[in-house]
Write a structure and sequence with these properties.
There is one protein chain. Helices cover 41% and strands 20% of the residues. With 486 residues, the chain is an alpha/beta fold. Helix 2 crosses helix 7. Strands 15-16-17-14-13-19-20 form a 7-stranded mixed beta sheet, sandwiched between helices. A hairpin with a 4-residue loop joins strand 4 and strand 5. The longest helix is centred in the N-terminal third of the chain and has 18 residues.
């Protein structure tokens, strides 16, 4: 049993002003593996005060110094890959192979991408009209991250703040505190000054709202549900903060008959089930051209039925349990909804897989003959559930894909480069993958519509944490004799 009863504030681990303790659950066993003590608005006040004090000095550090600190953080994260992977696998159920390569491994990869972005960033430059532009850190940043890709989201928020000279207060998910604590240890080991990075455990109602409403926090960056993102925006409005949101998705995957079906379709199904379907950019709506619809359904069914579900402690390509009972119940409800709506069950269905009576395991499920007006095609299920929708023309496919409240990601499978360009240009989504090729580390990630605003990653991610200042060129004024002293 692991007890997490300290927050990281002003460079030290401290007991908080709050006192409510909640269990840390193992999704594979439904048993507690520890507990975390939640903070309070008073703890947020302490963390923000520390970040405000630290900002005065850290905001003036040279780029070279910040690059050295980032490289130290990258080394610290690389040294803790196995610890991080084991923590993530235990607390949120990711199979250890995935937890090691993708979940924990993304931390140092994101740091490397932000190092490259910072090296290329012009912090001061001239406009064509001769004026000078300065890019300056925005101030104290409030960061709220989810449980499904815990280190991915922490790195995508904390690291760009550190890179540009901003300071921060992080509220990680209270359900995945073990990995967050390891990240904080890595920041400490890297040698960041006290108060530059602070972390308060807590829930959204108390700690999250206190951060959003705090007058000394200059911006909020939130990843989570669209409903919760709207609450962050409302709480932040009174103090006119900058708000960056990365929210839900219901991503369309357009499968055209001219693609390599035998390669693209199995890969698409596996991508939908990745992380047990608990990904905001999962391709959960497969739109299939009518002329290849029957063959695609055969491949989809075979792939779904061959998808192994097993203990996350085991090595291998299987998927693990859903995160908790609430998520399991939500997925089961939506499977029932699909059946009631008249969609054809192609694979999976209600209940647990055979042999897995304990743990929040769900059967990989596929519905065929889905209409885009059905709830299973419109609502984010956040589980291993795929909806297959037929279309007759390219224009219809684009219309169906864009007929969604969300616009985070989209996927295209086609053998035609011209079609790929044409269709990608018309999809209302922030990220478009083509024939299995997605965006790399350092590219912007974010969505349209109710999938949020702002971008994370690379140069675009740095810009979220920067203010823009314009002033006349002092050098030109010196030449023009506008000063009496150099």
């Amino acid at each position: 049993m692991t007890t997490v009863d300290r927050h990281y504030i002003d460079g030290v681990w401290v007991a908080g002003e709050g006192g409510r303790t909640v269990p840390i659950m193992n999704p594979a066993t439904e048993a507690p593996i520890g507990s975390v003590t939640l903070g309070s608005p008073a703890d947020v006040d302490l963390a923000v005060a520390a970040a405000s004090r630290a900002f005065e000095g850290f905001s003036r550090t040279a780029k070279a110094e910040r690059l050295d600190l980032l490289r130290a953080l990258q080394r610290a994260l690389e040294a803790r890959i196995e610890d991080m992977a084991q923590a993530i696998s235990l607390e949120m159920g990711a199979p250890i192979t995935l937890a090691r390569s993708a979940q924990a491994g993304c931390g140092p990869r994101h740091v490397a991408a932000f190092i490259a972005a910072l090296e290329a960033l012009e912090e001061e430059y001239s406009l064509p009209n001769g004026d000078t532009i300065r890019k300056e850190p925005i101030g104290v940043c409030g960061l709220i991250t989810p449980w499904n890709w815990p280190i991915n989201q922490i790195a995508q928020k904390v690291v760009p703040a550190l890179a540009v000279g901003a300071t921060s207060v992080l509220k990680p998910s209270e359900h995945t505190p073990l990995s967050a604590a390891i990240f904080a240890q890595c920041v400490h080991e890297a040698g960041y000054p006290p108060g530059v990075f602070n972390m308060v455990f807590g829930d959204g109602a108390d700690v999250g709202s206190a951060m959003s409403r705090h007058p000394d926090i200059a911006m909020m960056s939130f990843t989570g549900s669209t409903r919760a993102g709207a609450m962050v925006s409302r709480d932040s409005a009174e103090t006119v903060k900058r708000v960056a949101l990365e929210l839900g998705g219901k991503s369309a995957n357009l499968v055209f008959a001219d693609c390599d079906l035998e390669t693209c379709v199995p890969a698409s199904v596996r991508r939908c089930f990745l992380n047990t379907g608990q990904g905001c950019n999962a391709p959960t709506r497969m739109l299939v051209e009518r002329s290849c619809y029957d063959r695609v359904l055969e491949i989809v069914r075979e792939t779904a039925e061959s998808q192994a579900v097993d203990d996350p402690a085991k090595e291998g390509p299987h998927i693990g349990p859903l995160f908790d009972k609430m998520q399991y119940d939500r997925v089961q409800t939506m499977i029932d909804v699909g059946l009631q709506e008249g969609a054809r069950l192609l694979a999976g269905g209600p209940g647990r897989p055979d042999g897995l009576g304990t743990g929040w395991f769900a059967r990989p499920t596929v519905f065929a003959d889905v209409g885009n007006d059905m709830r299973i095609a419109r609502e984010e299920i956040f589980g291993p559930v795929l909806s297959v929708i037929p279309f007759d023309s390219e224009e219809e496919a684009i219309r169906i894909a864009n007929d969604s409240d969300y616009g985070l990601a989209a996927y295209i499978q086609t053998g035609s480069a011209a079609r790929a360009r044409r269709v990608a240009a018309q999809l209302r989504a922030g990220v478009v993958a083509i024939n299995g090729q997605g965006a790399g580390a350092g590219s912007p990630f974010g969505g349209y519509k109710q999938s949020g605003n702002g971008r994370e990653g690379g140069q675009f991610g740095l810009e979220e944490y920067l203010e823009v200042k314009v002033m006349p060129s002092i050098e030109a004024m010196v030449v023009a004799g506008r000063f009496t002293a150099p």
